[in-house]
Design a protein that fits this description.
about 150 residues; four-stranded antiparallel beta sheet; 3 helices; 8 strands; about 25% helix; binds zinc ion
């Protein structure tokens, strides 16, 4: 039996919505996905990585659009992690543009952040754009929607 999660993570990895807004967003998500197993608010002091699990992504350079080798990426992930991700800039192997890990293009999306709304087995398929925009307004931030499949 496999599980699915949808994690909603602010585009700015250091952004944490106010506690009141976190609660409103969580309650709204309860209405959007009433059959979900669990909806969790994640707040962390350091930047965490929200991966897409078995939906393994392609990683593209934000500057030239070339695909980035997973080996290079895993090494930078190791370099960058120190009690959380520092999100330093690294020169990409393709065109030497200095990019932090959260600005690489992940297809499926993945995200870095200190805050997430994490929905276990949401049973809604994908989150509708209209709902995403509504939650973005509540949380006062653009969101990356990460679909995790295990
Ligand atoms: Zn490049």
């Amino acid at each position: 039996m496999s599980d699915n999660w949808i994690a909603l993570v602010p585009v700015d990895p250091h952004f944490i919505p106010s506690p009141g807004r976190q609660t409103i967003a969580r309650n709204r998500l309860d209405e959007i996905a009433p059959d979900a197993d669990q909806i969790e608010i994640i707040v962390s002091e350091s930047v965490r990585f929200f991966d897409c699990g078995a939906n393994f992504p392609k990683i593209l350079c934000p500057s030239c659009g070339k695909e980035i080798a997973l080996d290079w990426w895993s090494e930078r992930m190791d370099d960058d992690y120190q009690d959380g991700f520092k999100l330093d800039r690294y020169c990409t192997p393709c065109c030497n543009s200095a990019s932090p890990l959260h600005e690489l293009i992940y297809d499926w999306p993945q995200a870095f952040g200190c805050f997430a709304l994490d929905v276990m087995n949401p049973r809604i398929g994908t989150l509708e754009n209209e709902h995403r925009r509504e939650l973005e307004e509540i949380l006062e931030t653009k969101l990356v929607v990460v679909y995790q499949h295990i």
